[in-house]
Amino acid sequence: MALRKSEIGMRRWMQALAGIILTVLLTLTLGCRGGSREVVVYVSEDQVFSEPILKDFEKVTGITVRAVFDTEEAKSTGVMNRLLAEKEAPQADVYWANELVRAEVLKQKGLAQPYDSPSAEGIPQEFRDPDHGWTGFSARARVLIVQESIEPHPSSVQAYLDPAFKGKTAVANPLFGTTTAYAAALFVLWGEDRAKALFDGMKANGVRVTASNGDSADLVASGECSFALVDSDDAVSREKQGKTVVMVVPDQGEGQPGVFLVPNAAVLIKGGPHAENGKKLVDYLLSKETERKLAFADCAQIPLHAGVETPPQVPRIERLRPMKVDVPRVAAELQAIQPYLKAWAQ
Questions:
Q1: Helix-then-strand count for the chain, H and E
Q2: Domain residues for 221?
Q3: How wide is the angle at C-alpha 305 spanned by C-alphas 295 and 332, nearest 5°?
Q4: CA pair distance 270, 267, nearest whole angstrom
Q5: pLDDT: which is higher, 166 or 35
């Protein structure tokens, strides 16, 4: 029996509709397989502190996080070198750096996609790249850990030169980690002659050079040294352990350099496979809530947003006098002073 034209038209319409539905379903399926609900982040912040934040992001957004963490042996350079190697075919969407200088290096090498996150509002401009290549958040500070019995407590790095502390101080090897960044910052801020005068004076006064900030903190906690320059999390952890030490934020007076802060940094990677999800992760990392969580974690980091709740042992940014740091110049100075620091550490 012949079909009417109207019935033929209806069948063709239904077939077309079915085709459209099938196409949409295939697109959605392939999109999921291609990772439209995921984000890839390379992380140099310690995994024990960063992973809980990333898990919270997954819960809030439903976006799966594929994280690549630095190993302890890589000393925060492993994932950065991987990013550089993948420049022509990026695999990561976001880089969570544990300090600004490495973020600046990536920007200078063309790996950063400018992104002005709404979560950055309220973070001081000195911790934000003016070109939006990176944004700082949640900082450690270079502080003095001091034996509680010492009075008065030393309040400046210049105390390393005090004859009263000859042979009784410690500092981590300046060829590595945050001590290197601190040294470079002083060279930029003070100039070569004055910065060298400090380091040469420290050596002449018998400073003990240790393998890490943790080792320096332990020497003070055990009573072997009077004080040491360490990261704030090292000082806070010894206080929590009940050691008879205090944390002193140094150089807060007029004419002094201020406290050197070491913020984390969020970088959106240019050409990353999940750019929009990458932006969402950057927004989350820079949020006040993330800063609050990192303040109360064992890393005891200082929120860069004013007014964020912190535990008693973590200072608030609005009560600190930070060192003025020119991040691009410090990044360049890091390389320039390596020969001097290598000779100094021997």
A1: 12, 9
A2: 140-260+337-345
A3: 90
A4: 9
A5: 166
Q: How far is CA 283 from CA 116, 170, 267, in A?
A: 9, 39, 11
% of residues, the chain, pLDDT over 90: 83
Per-position b or e across 117-150, b if 16+ CB within 10 A of its CB = bebbeebeebbbbeebbbbbbbbbbbbbbbbeeb
In angstroms, rounded to a whole number, what is the distance separating the alpha carbons of residues 144 and 150? 13
Q: How far is CA 37 from CA 29, 63, 247, 334, in A?
A: 11, 5, 44, 39
Q: Beta strands of the chain (E only): which ranges?
A: 38-43, 64-69, 94-97, 135-147, 169-172, 208-210, 227-231, 245-248, 261-268
Contact, 292 vs 309, CB < 8 A?
Answer: yes
- Are residues 272 and 310 located together in one domain of the fold? yes
**Mean pLDDT of all residues in 16-20:** 45
Q: Output DSSP code: residue 269.
A: B
Residue 318 tokens read as: 């609005």
Number of domains in the chain: 2
Burial readout 160-185 (b: 16 or more C-beta within 10 A, e: otherwise): bbeeebeebbbbbbbeebbbbbbbbb
In a domain, 31, yes or no: no
Q: How far is CA 8 from the centre of its chain?
A: 66
Do residues 93 and 146 both lie within one domain? no
- The answer to whether residue 174 scores a pLDDT higher than 60 is yes
The pTM (predicted TM-score) of the whole model is 0.84
Residue at 28 is within a domain? no
pLDDT at 177: 84
Q: Are 291 and 266 in contact (CB under 8 A)?
A: no
The DSSP code sequence of 44-69 is -S-HHHHHHHHHHHHHHH-PEEEEEE
- The percentage of the chain sitting over the pLDDT mark of 70, rounded to a whole number, equals 88
152 Cβ neighbours under 8 A, 6+ residues apart:
none
> 341 and 197: one domain?
yes
Whether pLDDT at 102 is above 90:
no
At residue 168, the pLDDT reads 98
Q: How far apart are CA 208 and CA 132, in angstroms?
A: 40
Instruction: For residue 93, give Cα distances in angstroms to 154, 180, 267, 276.
Output: 44, 28, 9, 9
